Hints:
Elements: E1 2-7, E2 12-19, E3 22-30, H1 36-50, E4 58-64, H2 70-87, E5 91-94, H3 96-101, E6 110-116, E7 121-128, E8 133-141, E9 155-158, H4 162-166, E10 174-176, H5 188-197
Parallel strand pairs: 1-4, 4-5, 6-9, 9-10
Antiparallel strand pairs: 1-2, 2-3, 6-7, 7-8
Helix pairs in contact: 1-2
Amino acid sequence: MYILNIETSTKNCSVTIAFEGKALSTREIADTGYSHAEKLHVFIEELITQEGLQFKDLHAVAVSKGPGSYTGLRIGVSAAKGICYALQIPLLAVDTMRILAQQIKVDSGYIIPMLDARRMEVYDAVFSAEFEQIQVVSAKVLHETSYAEFKDKPVYFLGDALEKAQTILKQDNFVFCEMNRYPSSKQMAQISYQMYQKSDFVDVAYFEPYYLKEFYFGK
Length: 219
């Protein structure tokens, strides 16, 4: 079973082809200019060719559903929908925070993936060391007492909002994993396979990214 995994919720444009939950090959680039529109379809075609596959060999497409960059999410979801519609295969929508959380492995404590939502606001969620979700995804304004309730075990923060978080969050049990900035499609492989086995699909026609906050635009 081949699943194409697409992650475009942040500056990282990332694509992975997985076979039965194992990542086979990945193409990704973290570009400050958000080149997702130019890179995404090129990466997909390169991976299909590299693995000696054709598009008809795909059994499903998984896409990171958000929260994250409005433009990045729309580009990824649009590409995933187009492929699923053309091939008549299922679409899987994977929680971006769960993808990011799985970039680290810890023996105990809490994992808090955190993405920048501008100013002092972040998107976050809280997971156990076994990746059980303790708190749902939320948009949160950081202050000195944020996450103070998690004081009994180490708390591991990761994501692209760590620079501003470190200036505010000062508890002794807080650990900032600075190397893990962006979610990657590589961490989607096992998640999307498990979702496929449960037939945890979304409607190709009506699915929308999980923006969490309303989209505002100016002139």
